[in-house]
Design brief:
CATH superfamily of one domain: SPOUT methyltransferase, trefoil knot domain
Shape: elongated
CATH architecture of one domain: 3-Layer(aba) Sandwich
Order of helices and strands: EEHEEHHEHEHEHEEHEHEHEHEHEH
Distance between the termini: 93 Å
Number of strands: 14
Structural class: alpha/beta
Strand content: 15-25%
Largest sheet: 6 strands, parallel
Strand order of the largest sheet: 11-10-9-13-12-14
Length: 334
């Protein structure tokens, strides 16, 4: 209850105003109920209450909405009319089988610069546009839509680190093994399923100038936004070839003159002693199960990484980077 102090007595403000209607206004020192000075009483409401009303009002409003919605669900009330002037979430963007949604500044920049990538449409924030076009001219025929970050979140999901840019594009052309005849170094993956690992492997493969990354159709990630973002643009610089039968593909590589070296923690010799020839294909298996038995039987030789420490195994992306470095050093010497 709000009180007005009048001399030594305290009376309810409402009663005081009614009792003194038309009388001079109550003063206590320099404070007055009305006039030029600040009021003795003050309405104490936080921003939430200023906007939404009191907590009690909000509670009853929720009850009314719940009751109204239940009546609509039973058919006692007509459906709610569509809200005007407010745009709802964009939701997933329709994507065809031969299309992919790429996101992230490095990924999108590399895709735009790749002449083999067919571009469809670009959604981008104003800030991201300034960063993307720093030293890069967008194709004149590429549709560009300036959007808010939330609109890209609604399409990709809030977990996607898109940096304010999303590109809809065609998947890259399918490559064949026989196109790798002149490549001295290849990387083969035996059912490595995690797109983040495969993306990191693609980056290492590009860094060490491998000719291609070859993987299986089944139990391996297809070309996707997650894979491309993890590769940070590397997907645009190296063929990513998916084959149906890995053992058959290894036999094709043998016929092309490649020595295939399967990495295995129990390999009979260290990697550096197992490399030979002028064409090398490194074969790595998934974490945990490693190379499948058929793959182990098909490769030219099995080898292990020399790790003198207590831990004898590495993440497959780390192991691939070390193996690529060793192979590249061997090829440079020979």
């Amino acid at each position: 209850m709000t009180l007005c102090q009048h001399g030594a007595s305290q009376i309810p403000l409402k009663n005081h105003l009614a009792r003194n209607a038309g009388a001079p206004q109550c003063k206590t020192g320099a404070n007055r109920l009305a006039g030029s000075g600040p009021p003795l009483y003050k309405k104490t409401m936080n921003k939430k209450h200023d906007r939404d009303g009191s907590a009690k009002d909000s509670h009853y409003a929720k009850l009314r909405r719940t009751h109204r919605d239940s009546k609509r669900a039973r058919g006692d009330l007509p459906p709610a009319p569509p809200r005007q002037g407010k745009r709802g979430p964009a939701g997933p963007l329709p994507v065809a089988d031969d299309e992919v949604l790429l996101y992230g500044l490095h990924t999108v920049r590399a895709a735009i610069e790749n002449p083999e990538r067919t571009l469809i449409a670009l959604k981008i924030t104003q800030n991201a546009l300034a960063r993307l076009t720093d030293g890069l001219d967008l194709p004149a025929d590429l549709p560009v839509e300036i959007v808010r970050p939330k609109e890209i979140d609604d399409i990709l999901g809030e977990d996607a680190i898109h940096q304010g840019v999303m590109l809809k594009a065609r998947t890259l052309p399918v490559r064949k093994l026989d196109a790798l005849q002149d490549s001295p170094l290849l990387l083969v993956l035996d059912q490595v399923t995690d797109p983040h690992n495969v993306g990191a492997i693609l980056r290492s493969a590009v860094a060490f100038a491998a000719g291609a990354v070859i993987t299986t159709m089944r139990h391996s990630p297809a070309e996707s936004g997650v894979l491309a973002k993890s590769a940070s643009g590397a997907l645009e610089y190296i063929p990513y070839i998916q084959i149906t039968n890995l053992a058959k593909a290894l036999d094709e590589l043998h016929a092309m003159g490649f020595t295939t070296v399967g990495l295995d923690s129990e390999g009979p010799a260290v990697l550096e002693e197992s490399l030979r020839g002028d064409k090398i294909a490194l074969v790595l298996g998934a974490e945990g199960k490693g190379l499948r038995q058929k793959t182990r039987e098909t490769v030219t030789t099995l080898a292990r990484l020399d790790m003198p420490g207590e831990i004898k195994s590495l993440n497959v992306s780390n192991a691939s980077a070390i193996a690529l470095y060793a192979a590249r050093q061997f090829l440079a010497r020979s």
